[in-house]
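Hi R.,

Here's the chain you asked about this morning:
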Amino acid sequence: MEEYIKCEFFVDGMHCAACELLIEKKLSKHKGVKKVDAQLAKEKVYLEINKELNQDDLREELSELITKDGYKLLNSKKNNHKINYKELTTALVIAGVFIRLFLLVQKLGIVNLATTSGQVTLPFVFLIGIIASLSTCMAVVGGLVLSLSSNYAKGQQTKPLILFHLSRIIGFFVLGGLIGLIGSAFILTPTMSFILNLILFLVMIILAINLLDVLPFVKKLQLKMPKVLGKNVLKVSETNNVLTPILLGAVTFVLPCGFTQSMQLYSLTTRSFITGALTMLVFALGTLPMLALISFASTKLSKILQSGLFFKAAGFIIIFFAIFNFTAALAAIGLIKPIFNI
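And here is the predicted structure, written out as tokens:
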């Protein structure tokens, strides 16, 4: 009978709760590993491994399993957190161009992407969905898409992939509506509205800082859904059943993505089934183009999009949107004057 012992390694490269699930899924495939528990807050992975294995050799083998995803296992934590200022500067320029275009489109009135009354418009939600698909949603949802596409590519089947994306859109619509319905059960006073807007602002700022990877300690503040939900989703993805794509598409709603959580929180504040449903529907539609492209493209494309530059550019953009929405909400209740006159 095999004996197992506990060991732990530091993980370099984790920036969100979705990373935990991805790392656990990859490392658990090693035949010498019995149990894996990745923890973002501690930047560690805790393992139960075969007693006969050499830990240094195992660390190198496991590290190879996740290196292509941007992670690395270390025996000790890096003493100095190195900030890639060149990449940050490039990302800031990219984000600046994007934000400038956003403000220009707003000012010209071509599309009403956002309002200064504290309300989030559907075009704005769609935009958030696009950004999400280029960053944190790519970690797990993109991984699921790639897993499905690789499984069905052998038989050149496209129907399961279509069912996955269709089920995801419908699932987001229905579950978003239910969240809005739950919100309608509460009386939203001005104070409660301010608190919810403050929480939404903090969630987005924490998400952005983690994407920028400049303040490691902020990872401990990352809002997370129970990990067991995500684990069950990943287990379903490994089954070969006709209903698997449909079920997976719907339950991606509970995967740990900061963007999704921020939109879910906003849906709660709408206090309306229809508005909540439309919010999450449009968000899912915003993520669809990139995720669909991955479905029918290649793994190489997803790895390019998971580069640090994309994450950091998204981080700067989300900081802007967080400030934009929060100041608009404050202006709407008369606490401050509108900052963005567009």
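One quick note: The longest helix spans residues 159-183.

Cheers,
M.
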